[in-house]
């Protein structure tokens, strides 16, 4: 019994430590997104006399081929990347959650809607996002839409599976038996109990969207180069990687740390929210 308690305490301590580290990383990036652009700007001025300078006291992360400060562009690009991640999460959860909510509760909607979602899921997400970004053009909002469309079917299927289990609960049967309308049952009894799964899903969508934005910008179909993002900075330095690897290294490091922290944050939240998973790990 004593050994079991020690193991549980160690696991709880490790989970708390992981949660604190992930929140710290996300907090630092969020602080850069909020404070860096007003204080430092976007480093859009060209200075060819200082092109391809290595990291030093004058330029902590060095400069790119146009003489722009990589440190300023990296910390300022956090705003764009976070905006994309949070915007895609909001769009995906709203659209996918609504579709999954109706499909899981109304059988006539389920048979048609899920076949459409299956058709979208048959197309690789990156290819669909590239096609939509090419059609809609560059821009922050269009990139959010292009990344959101491939994520909506996955969120809809998750929401549908949760609703299918919740609709069999006794409290839902009781609400229906007293004459509650379908919208009241959905928004008063089912949706509040399904938000836990959506919260965890939002973290994974945010991380995936940040990566997708970097891929689109790297391929030249993402956000305009005038607005710095980590994908744009990496794309601008790919031709000079051999002589100036710092152009790619620092924004790539920020991108990797943020995506890793958000993904691990989702895992920790899932353990904290789902009592069955927590009990299974503790046993």
Structural commentary:
- By secondary structure, the chain is mainly α.
- It has a single domain (2-282), classed as Orthogonal Bundle (MetI-like fold).
- The chain is built from 10 helices and no strands.
- It has helices spanning 2-40, 70-105, 107-121, 125-136, 140-166, 170-177, 182-219, 230-237, 246-273, 275-282.
- α1 (2-40) crosses α2 and α3 packs across α5 (140-166).
- The radius of gyration is 23 Å and the shape is elongated.
- The model is unreliable at 1-8 (pLDDT under 50).
Brief write-up:
With 283 residues, the protein is mostly helical. The chain contains 10 helices and no strands.
Structural features:
283 residues, mainly alpha, MetI-like fold, elongated, disordered N terminus
């Amino acid at each position: 019994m004593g050994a079991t308690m020690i193991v549980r305490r160690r696991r709880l301590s490790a989970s708390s430590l992981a949660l604190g580290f992930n929140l710290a990383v996300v907090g630092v990036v969020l602080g850069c997104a909020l404070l860096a652009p007003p204080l430092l700007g976007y480093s859009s001025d060209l200075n060819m006399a200082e092109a391809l300078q290595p990291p030093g006291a004058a330029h902590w992360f060095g400069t790119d081929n146009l003489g722009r400060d990589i440190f300023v562009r990296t910390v300022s690009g956090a705003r764009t990347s976070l905006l994309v991640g949070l915007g895609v999460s909001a769009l995906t959860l709203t659209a996918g959650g609504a579709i999954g909510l109706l499909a899981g509760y109304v059988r006539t909607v389920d048979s048609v809607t899920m076949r459409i979602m299956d058709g979208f899921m048959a197309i690789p997400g990156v290819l669909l996002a590239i096609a939509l970004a090419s059609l809609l053009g560059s821009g922050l909002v269009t990139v959010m839409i292009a990344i959101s469309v491939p994520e909506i079917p996955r969120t809809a299927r998750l929401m549908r599976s949760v609703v299918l289990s919740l609709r069999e609960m006794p409290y839902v049967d009781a609400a229906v038996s007293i004459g509650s309308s379908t919208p009241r049952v959905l928004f008063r009894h089912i949706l509040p109990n399904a938000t836990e799964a959506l919260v965890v899903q939002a973290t994974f969508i945010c991380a995936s969207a940040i990566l997708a934005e970097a891929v689109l910008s790297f391929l030249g179909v993402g956000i305009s180069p005038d607005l710095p993002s980590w994908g744009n900075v990496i794309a601008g330095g790919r031709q000079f990687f051999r002589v100036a690897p710092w152009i790619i290294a620092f924004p790539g490091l920020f991108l990797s740390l943020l995506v890793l922290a958000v993904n691990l944050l989702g895992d920790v939240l899932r353990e904290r929210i789902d009592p069955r998973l927590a009990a299974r790990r503790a046993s």
